[in-house]
């Protein structure tokens, strides 16, 4: 196989600015192209998968796919199948077609064990769902991941409720995002798409207006994949799950990184909002907050 190019120029620029190039080079050696047996076993246990991609209009979204354990499984050293594909009412429903590989970022995250695995590459539709071809596979540490127990919903999904589309956050949506302890962010860069996790204590996301919010960029693994992508392409998508009800709040827009003397923050401008009631059948317990949360 060809060697992995761990970072593109955007990530390298952020790493250099922050002063973590040496640490990033060390971490980058963990990125591989193949799916190891332990990773394949982890995937088959998961009832959910977060993906990130652009819709046919070029907007970037982060979406939540769910199913019985085994709905995501490795079918070869670099291939994964996702049974069911993207739900028809999801903003990414039209993003993938047969015979047309499309950039995708995926994140398998298990709140029960605080483990997560990222697999980025391309995906195309199949009669059964999605076929994903891996470009890079790696695990992340459990930092800022809240522990939760799953108590319902690993079976087939019941019919979901209403879908609401707007170009701004309603007061209820602003309150929900501002109280979140977890969300997911999708970005695009020269090497493809990426889906990542952000976590903290409630209030770490600040909603500044109906069309703008911000969050701090906490110290992580020094890779700067998300911020690196934003250096080259401002498009981004956010996913806020309601762990208790299965409702999802999806935002698409643009984001930029703000560097200050005290740290970094990302400012996101909302262009479109999709709220889907009971989009996920999964029901999770209240969180046990990560000891790493500031």
UniProtKB/TrEMBL annotation:
Domain Pyridoxamine 5'-phosphate oxidase N-terminal, residue spans: 169-268
Organism: Streptomyces coeruleoprunus
Name of the protein this chain belongs to: Pyridoxamine 5'-phosphate oxidase family protein
